[in-house]
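Board notes (copied after class):
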Amino acid sequence: MQNNKLGTFGGVFTPSLLTILGVIMYLRFGWVVGNVGLIGTLMIVTLSTSITFLTSLSIASIATNSKVKAGGAYYMISRSLGVEIGGALGIPLYLAQTFSVALYVMGFSESLVAVFPVLNFKVVGVITTLLLGVLALFSTKATIRAQYFILSIIGLSLISLVLGKPIENSEIEMWGVPEHMSVGFWQVFAVFFPAVTGIMTGVNMSGDLKNPSRSIPLGTFLAVAIGYLIYMGLPLILAGRADAATLVEDPLIMRKIAFWGGAILLGVWGASLSSAVGSLLGAPRVLQALTRDNVVPRKMSVLANGYGPENIPRGGTILTIAITLVSVILGDLDAIAPVLTMFFLATYGILNVTAGIERFLKSPSFRPKFKVHWIFSLVGAVGCIAVMFLIHAVATILSVVFILAVLIWLRRRRLKTTWGDVRSGMLLQVVRYALLQLKPHNDPKSWRPNILVFSGAPIKRWHLIDFANGLAQEKGLFTVATILPEAKVSQEKIYQYEKQIKEYLIEKNIRSLVRVVRAQNPFVGAQYLSNAYGLGPLVPNTILLGDTTDASHHEPYSDMINHFYQSRKNVIILRDEEPVPNRSNLNVDIWWGGLKGNGGLMMVLGYMMQNSPHWQQVNITIKMVVTSQKAALEAEKNLDKLLSSIRVDFKKKILVSEKGDFFNLLSNDSQATDLVMLGLKKPDAGFSGYFNDLKRKTASIPRKLFVVASHDIAFKEILS
């Protein structure tokens, strides 16, 4: 199989150089020189090539870090930034290369018909597409050999141009736009730049190379260098043989000033065909790699197959030929041509970003033989973005929208891969920076819930996870914690349990952390985990758990609650004996005893529930019991003032009971309420008896949230 692979010259250098020396060189380069002058042209060539050279540096860095398999740019990006971003660029890249085949074939057909008017444009295009397609279908090597022939024709045309003579006295300006010209420098730059974007042609042949990590950098550098030398030399010839007006007006001016004009015509045809061949070889291989990674739907899995000793992707080639034929028959791709160029430039930009990120993060796995400072990659990425807008701002926006649409589609499919990528390293750097910036004691104004949920097996106490998910959405974090008995579960199985819980939560669309530990009993394990869990200042500040119904567990359960409180953590106990009937319209009662103590935390929890997308509508009512009508008026006045000052949309209800029978009032007034919040006294040695008595007195309330606020959090300041 290795003997059938391509080397540097045939696999990378030749297709890249032939795409660089394309139709723009023959048909538009005189126009460039005529519009911006000699020095202006040399600046455009240098600036354009600098961007592609910086991209080549990034390509070389990625290619020499690990083996590059089939797929070229898609493979490089997907293995660094993930399959979603790789696919979001790989699909547009395939389409761009496919339509490029059509554009080059149409350019060849138009030039041929111009010389031989008797020919039919569409017939020539269809025949040309089929002949190139047959060549690509059955032998990659034969196609490469055809490119050698085309390269020799282009070489002959350049020699003929050098040996030619002036057709008039040249009065071309050295710099600047001549007075009679209306095209500006950046407009000319936008026309010329696509001429130097052929570096990806060779990269896309990565799967057909004997040694991709050597051939891709070397072949790409050589193609860029020789292309630059040719483009720097041609303006000197053109400027010395015709004046600006002639260069602008005659697209085939090279034919007149060359030693043999026919060689230029052959060069135009060769350039068109070679560019078409390069794209026809590269596009199916990108599609093959996309299919093998399941980016393309499984219905099209036949596109992943390779045939013969050269592993030719015939399915992808046939599809590419079919799309090309339809495009040629329809006849006009000018409207989408700018968008296709944007896809190429977006790919170059992301390649620069990929190399820059890898180098900046200094990942241990990124050890390229060819080292490039991340600054150069960043400059290359910025250059690509700038050029995209300079060439066509609307096309740039359309291409970005298309790429984002593909990215969203791929993310929804939740593709699974067998390789890692750089995203975890990027996130780790961000997390590291953020952790080091966090203060040990957060300001009350920046308080966010970081909830540790002791749910046990998620299925058994799903209501705890569901409630924590509602509180933490868009505002904080929560961790689903499970304590397993040491006697029954080995440490080796802990990782597997965590993995299973994570997968289960992902299926339920729950975004949370997961922690599983072993302990002699759940109460000791919970205390241990509450002490040890967290990273630096980012530790849980709130504990959410259910209740225990086993009488033998009352004392250790109360000790555990006391431990949480002494550890300066809020404690929330959710007794949910019946499921919440309707998430779209939830009624919550907060039984109020004042802002101090638990009152502030209950107000914050109510506000978070009311503003969470988890619940469509939450109606919060603050309820308070007083002993006289006079006290009711004063309490109502104080509550109005408080609710106004903390800017929350809560209702209020003052109940009068001269006998002070609080629990009868609570049971009667909140019987039909979906959730009741009650504050607990400070946990102490007698907490078990107190809590059991409280549960007995509120037994008629089906859903209760008992709250104990940490004495270390100033909820009054949070609400102010």
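Comment from the instructor: The longest strand covers residues 477-485. The mean pLDDT is 83.
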